[in-house]
Amino acid sequence: MTIDIRQASHPEAARHYDTAELRRHFLIEKLFVSGEIPLTYSHVDRVIVGGAMPAAKSLTLPTPKAVGTDAFLARRELGIVNVGGPGRVTVGGEAHALGHRDALYVGKGAGEVEFSSDDAANPAKFYLISTPAHQTYPTKRITASDAKAIALGEQATANKRVIRQYIIPGVCDSCQLVLGLTQLEEGSNWNTMPSHVHDRRCEVYLYFDLAEDARVFHLMGEPQETRHLVVANEQAILSPGWSIHSGVGTRSYSFIWAMGGDNMDYTDMDPVPTTELR
């Protein structure tokens, strides 16, 4: 187990970061390592981001010192999405089968979490996102068909996509975690444009389903002081509330978005007209 601690960055400081500094503060380059659970703890809204890739042996979610409690879920909730082969997540002794793109919400105080793959040659890749929690909600499995699907965009603007909301009021109760998966249609490559910010909550993006030679150009920064990060397959972005979060790929792709902060209203955002971006 490894854990990387990321401090919060002021937007005035981020204006002066070079490429290496931007990547060090906001990009998580390696999430899935066979037989390991690398974690990143961000002081932006206290989110923890990680990946569990069990092979021949199961993996148990550790409790790093940074969490500050005796058990990982003592004062936290957890969202899990499988972006690999079929596997199982055992929570407090109860096993939950997760296929490709299935999700699991795990509530505060649920107990020990263990990950396993059905086939070591085609391992599961469990993406993990955790936020602080002060109320207990039941563990729940959510499939793609269970999620609330929203079709957006059009071919003319190269952003036809389907958003599936997995952890959101009306689908799965949670304390503050909101999570979903967006898939762009073939020939579309913009995930969000016009862009927006939501200063009341951070957002984390995991980009996946990218070919080895494909990349996403993730736009970030203040609306009048934009920056970008070049992102490869299965890499994640930590997006603070003051930053825009928009992106364009060299081909279509998918991404998981997750938020934690002041509220759970999916539409709570401040749009930024494209003409005002700099």
Describe the structure.
The protein has 278 residues and is mostly beta strands. Helices cover 4% and strands 43% of the residues. It is built from two helices and 23 strands. The protein starts with a strand and ends in a 6-residue tail after the last strand. 43% of the residues are buried. The model has no long low-confidence stretch (mean pLDDT 95).
Cα shape: globular
Name the CATH architecture. Answer: Sandwich
CATH class: Mainly Beta
Beta-strand fraction estimate: 35-45%
Q: Kindly report how far apart the N and C termini lie.
A: 40 Å
Short recap of the structure:
The protein is mainly β and 278 residues long.
Write the layout of secondary structure elements.
Layout: E1 2-6, H1 11-14, H2 19-26, E2 27-28, E3 38-42, E4 48-52, E5 59-60, E6 76-82, E7 87-91, E8 94-98, E9 103-106, E10 113-117, E11 126-132, E12 140-142, E13 148-152, E14 161-167, E15 178-184, E16 195-197, E17 201-208, E18 216-222, E19 225-231, E20 235-239, E21 246-249, E22 254-261, E23 270-272
Parallel strand pairs: 1-3
Antiparallel strand pairs: 2-20, 3-4, 4-11, 5-10, 6-9, 6-11, 7-8, 7-10, 9-12, 13-14, 14-15, 15-22, 16-23, 17-20, 17-22, 18-19, 18-21
Keywords:
7-stranded mixed sheet, globular, 7-stranded antiparallel sheet, 23 strands, Jelly Rolls, mainly beta, 278 residues
